[in-house]
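Is this the right way to post structure tokens for a design question? Let me know if I should format differently. Anyway, here goes:
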């Protein structure tokens, strides 16, 4: 796979698939610019070589064509400030203005295309749509690891129309760090899996059972495990149809000698909101009408002890409903423990995108762990052993 590092963009018009799917508030202001910051080195390399950059991305999930809420025009001013050049904007990613602006683009200039998903052909992986995009540049750079698991026109199909295709720095770093975790992990290796559903994490949990020394389970999926052990979970989120699977995973962990660590207590609430009444109860003893929304203080201590002794740490998924400050205590404590293990004990820590990345970044810890992935779903699928279309297209 060719990378940005060993490619000279002088005189080239680089068509760069970035992941600018950033959250915007009601005033269309960016509330988390992590994904934009991640692409800066790739774009700066193209410009400093004497090339120009044509940026393409999706934003949100527009259902019926162009929508004000999902227009990438809201990113033009912030991007212009980031790169110190006036970013040009094409109001239609494959329209006449895109063709004209791309044709007249000079070295050192940046053009941003309108949201790719305003065309349904993008997500369908339509070859004709990919070809129309491809005509805008003469080298394809894929730096959108977060969408590499999708066989969309801009993330995979476009590779057919370029002889020169390059992995950006984000793509390269994501793959290298995932490989480091999977193939070169120093022991003890601890994986922390959170989130609401076992069904979302079955394959990654099963693969990790062959890799890790410790597997910490937190978040909503713990209540399905509680059911599997005959515990009471009140009205906590759970997957009753996955109870047998939970039992199987418990047995597999035992058979493989993996230390499977569950919460020993939970903070539960009588309603799903930040100001609900709350109490801490032992695992499997959540009263009727109450629901578990966070791990309890004893669980925090237990998890922190395991993390402190670890040399490799993979974390994917929060420990509770971290969007509510009163139920973010467990997630924040785990973030703190991972940072300490990284800084004080030299552990390698990979934060697996999505909510865990948000939790770490919101706590101001993003630059104090080894690596924060920009792609939740893509990282999980890569670690499950699946072929990612966006990666395969760069290797073809």
């Amino acid at each position: 796979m060719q990378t940005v590092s060993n490619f000279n963009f002088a005189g080239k018009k680089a068509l760069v698939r970035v992941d600018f799917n950033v959250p915007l508030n009601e005033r269309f202001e960016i509330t988390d610019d992590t994904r934009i910051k991640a692409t800066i080195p790739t774009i700066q390399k193209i410009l400093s070589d004497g090339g120009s950059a044509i940026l393409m991305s999706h934003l949100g999930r527009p259902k019926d064509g162009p929508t004000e809420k999902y227009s990438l025009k809201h990113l033009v001013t912030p991007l212009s400030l980031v790169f110190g050049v006036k970013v040009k904007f094409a109001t239609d990613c494959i329209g006449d203005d895109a063709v004209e602006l791309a044709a007249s683009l000079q070295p050192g200039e940046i053009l941003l295309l309108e949201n790719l998903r305003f065309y349904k052909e993008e997500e369908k992986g339509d070859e004709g749509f990919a070809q129309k995009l491809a005509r805008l540049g003469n080298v394809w750079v894929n730096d959108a690891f977060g969408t590499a698991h999708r066989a969309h026109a801009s993330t995979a199909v476009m590779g057919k129309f370029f002889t020169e295709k390059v992995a950006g720095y984000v793509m390269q770093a994501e793959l290298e760090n995932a490989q480091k975790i999977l193939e070169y992990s120093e022991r003890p290796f601890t994986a922390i899996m959170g989130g609401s559903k076992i069904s979302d994490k079955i394959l990654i949990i099963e693969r990790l059972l062959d890799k890790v020394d410790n597997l910490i389970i937190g978040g909503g999926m713990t209540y399905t495990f509680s059911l599997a052990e005959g515990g009471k979970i009140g009205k906590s989120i759970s997957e009753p149809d996955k109870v047998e699977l939970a039992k199987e995973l418990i047995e597999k962990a035992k058979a493989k000698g993996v230390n499977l660590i569950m919460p020993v207590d939970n903070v539960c609430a009588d309603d799903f909101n930040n100001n609900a009444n709350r109490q801490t109860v032992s695992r499997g003893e959540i009263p009727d009408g109450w629901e578990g929304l966070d791990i309890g203080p004893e669980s925090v201590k237990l998890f922190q002890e395991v993390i402190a002794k670890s040399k490799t740490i993979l974390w994917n998924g929060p420990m509770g409903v971290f969007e509510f400050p009163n139920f973010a205590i467990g997630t924040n404590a785990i973030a703190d423990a991972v940072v300490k293990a990284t800084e004080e004990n030299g552990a390698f820590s990979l934060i697996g995108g999505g909510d865990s990345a948000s939790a770490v970044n919101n706590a101001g810890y993003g630059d104090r762990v080894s690596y924060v992935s920009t792609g939740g779903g893509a990282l999980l699928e890569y670690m499950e052993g699946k072929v990612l279309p966006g990666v395969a297209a760069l290797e073809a």
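Format looks fine. Someone answered above. Worth noting: The radius of gyration is 22 Å. The mean pLDDT is 94.
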